[in-house]
Each structure stands twice: as C-alpha cells, then as structure tokens.
Amino acid sequence: MNRRQFLASSTALLAVRPSFAQEGPFRTKYFPISPGIGLHDLTPAADGTVWFTAQGKGMLGRLDPKSGTFKTVSLGQGAAPHGVTIGPDGAPWITEGGQNAIARVDPGDLKVTLFRLPEKFAYANLNTGVFDKTGIYWFTGQSGYYGRLAPKSGEMSVFKAPKGVGPYGIAVTPKGDIWYASLAGSYIARIDPASGNAAVVEPPTPNQGSRRVWSDSKSRLWVSEWNSGHVSVHDPADGSWKTWKLPGERPRAYAVYVDDKDKVWLTDFSANAIVRFDPVTEQFNVFASDKANANVRQLDGRPGELWGCESGNDRIVMIQTITAG
C-alpha cells in the first residue's frame, strides 16, 4: 500500500449512526458515507462487511454494518470504479473504468492489483463483472464490449458486442450460463464461454432499455428495463417472456436483484424507491427513501438482507426481512 492509499484508508475510518424505519415485516437502515464520495455499486462479503465503489473519489470502501464504520482505499490516479463483486478468492474485484482495468483489492492489506485492457480497447467504459463457475471473470464495457479474465494467468480477451454500444449488467445462472444486458441495444445476450460469441435475445417490449440482469434459482433471467419501467423474466429453457410494469407513473427501473427466496428487488428512480416484486402473487412492495433523489444504482444481498447504494445521498441502505420468533 502506498502513502496515498494508507492515508485514504486511515482517514476514512469514521463512525456513523445508522437510522431505520419500520415497514411491516421489513426494517430499513441507512448508513451515511462521506458526502461527495460518489457511491455506485456494492457487494456483501462472507465476513459480514459490505464492499462499495466510490466512483466520485476513485476509491473502494468497506463498511462494517455492526459498528457503522468504514474504510476506503484509493484505486489509483484517475480511478472511476463502477461495479464490484466478490471472487472465489474472497477478494473484491472491480470494473475500474478510469484506468480501463479490472482491479483486485486484497481484503487483508488492501493492496490494489490492476489487469489492464489492451490498448486497442482503451475506451471500453467498464461497467459490471461476475465470476462463472470455473473462476473466470466476465465483464461488460458500455462502449460496445464484453470480455473475460483468467485471474490465475492474467490472460484477458475482449469481444465486440453484436449491436455495438450498450453492454451493462451481467449475471451467471445456477446452470453456469453467462448473460449480459445491453442498455443502448435493448437486448440481453448469452455468452458462449468457449468461443466468446454472444447470442442476442430480444425482449418483447421494443426499445425497453435492458439495464441490469440477475438470475433466479431456476436459471431464469430477470431484467430491469430502464426505458419502459418494466421488470421482465426470460426462461431460456422454453424461450418464454413475462413482463410487469412497476407501480406508479413513469417508473424508471435501474437495478435488479433476486434474493434467496426468488423474490425480485428493483430500484425505481422516478418513485425514489426500492421495489420488491413477488413473482407468485405478482404483487409489489414499495420502500420509498426518506430523502429525495436517492438514485439507488445497484442492488445485492444475502439471506434476509437487501443492500443498495444511494448514489444521490451517498448512503448505503439495507432492508432486512424480519422473521417471527
């Protein structure tokens, strides 16, 4: 860790006071982070902490929900991190668009390792990443690319998306298939891990703006549609689609996450809320933020907990499911 990283890590150890509100069988807590830090994505770790990207300051952070404290580490000069996920090695891996690289941060000493994209893909505009079952890291670049990285060897391959600009969210299914969503292209695509080719699948709503994608336990793909305000599900087994419009006027569905009970969580910028959808009852629960312009850009979770970054307020939000007894 260099001096800049050490200072960033040391000075950002701050105590915060989580607040919460009761909402039926759910409880919402807010964890304020530094104003202006530019929160974007997050992912819970096995040790109970939560890693988050601070795009505005070029940092990765780690929140301890028990104490409400957090630390940050600089990812390097010009860094602008977007997505973060936990790898098989237990470390956070980041799509670091500012340096056009995939970044790994050691959870122990916070050492940053960069895997840079080839120069000919210098403006990939990296977005999100996911690990497949073999330990290969797959990522998207909104300028019209997707790619893969073999962490052990450092070998990287980058591919041009079939419809150009747009690749955004990415997910892996329980069956091991890799899918990404294209915001500008308004489609989802399955990647062949052997050839790297992407097979486009068109949702039923034209120009819907498929932004993020997540798999449920049955390997069905749930898609948040930014332009249409819909949540859709695609079953690759039979090619079927189902679509629901989020409640309210002119919804804007940004993030999507499917929890361990196969309930679907989304964020709606227009409603300033996180929305829970039950595919069985086809009913929505709406969890409005207690502050305006929350702009939750990404969701992730673990059993009983839903996590998101309020980029507009630089707060991390957690919604707990309260169980009887």
TrEMBL record:
Pfam families according to UniProt: Vgb_lyase
Gene Ontology biological process: antibiotic catabolic process; response to antibiotic
Cofactors named for this entry: Mg(2+)
A cellular component annotation (GO) from this entry: outer membrane-bounded periplasmic space
Record's keyword terms, sorted: Antibiotic resistance, Lyase, Magnesium, Metal-binding
Family: Belongs to the Vgb family.
UniProt name for this protein: Virginiamycin B lyase
EC number, as in UniProt: 4.2.99.-
Top-level taxon of the source organism: Bacteria
Subunit field text: Monomer.
Function per UniProt: Inactivates the type B streptogramin antibiotics by linearizing the lactone ring at the ester linkage, generating a free phenylglycine carboxylate and converting the threonyl moiety into 2-amino-butenoic acid.
InterPro entries: Vgb (IPR051344), Vgb_bact (IPR011217), WD40/YVTN_repeat-like_dom_sf (IPR015943)
GO molecular function, one term: carbon-oxygen lyase activity
Gene3D superfamilies reported for this sequence: YVTN repeat-like/Quinoprotein amine dehydrogenase
EC top class, as a word: lyase
